[in-house]
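for the recovery benchmark. tokens below, seq after
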């Protein structure tokens, strides 16, 4: 009976946990700073067609972060933010992520975990965001984050 419950739980989560692994050609401290310094984040955060126009971050456990992604094509602003839960310099970030709703309140929250590992002068990043309400939302975030990480890769080159 317990195995059936475990299988049911696994099936409900399938496709709603986003995992992205990347290797950046820069030291861990440089990559970590790109994730924690708002001035650096403005240079890469957001997909190519929705780059960040505003970023603020109080990078400490309990500290808040907030950002806005802007589409020049249609003038749409996408506000989002969250709270840092874990900050281990050059090693790990854990924070919540929620899009603002039309009334300005935070929408459904996901949890982002990012681990940074030294790889002979390069940085291996393991990114996970979970749990999304739908497979489609998870896939949309996969596309968005990968586009942003492409921009980060270019910035670090």
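predicted aa per position
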């Amino acid at each position: 009976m317990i195995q059936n419950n475990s299988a049911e739980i696994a099936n409900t989560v399938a496709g709603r946990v986003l995992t992205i692994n990347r290797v950046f050609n820069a030291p861990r401290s440089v990559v970590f700073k790109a994730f924690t310094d708002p001035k650096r984040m403005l240079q890469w955060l957001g997909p190519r067609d929705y780059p960040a126009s505003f970023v603020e971050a109080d990078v400490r456990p309990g500290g808040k972060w907030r950002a806005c992604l802007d589409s020049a094509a249609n003038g749409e602003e996408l506000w989002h933010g969250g709270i840092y839960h874990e900050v281990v310099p050059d090693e790990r970030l854990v924070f919540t992520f929620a899009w603002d709703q039309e009334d300005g309140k935070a929408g459904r929250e996901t949890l982002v975990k990012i681990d940074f590992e030294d790889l002979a002068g390069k940085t291996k990043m393991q990114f996970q965001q979970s749990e999304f309400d739908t497979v489609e939302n998870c896939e949309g975030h996969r596309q968005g984050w990968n586009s942003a990480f492409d921009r980060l890769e270019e910035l670090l080159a």
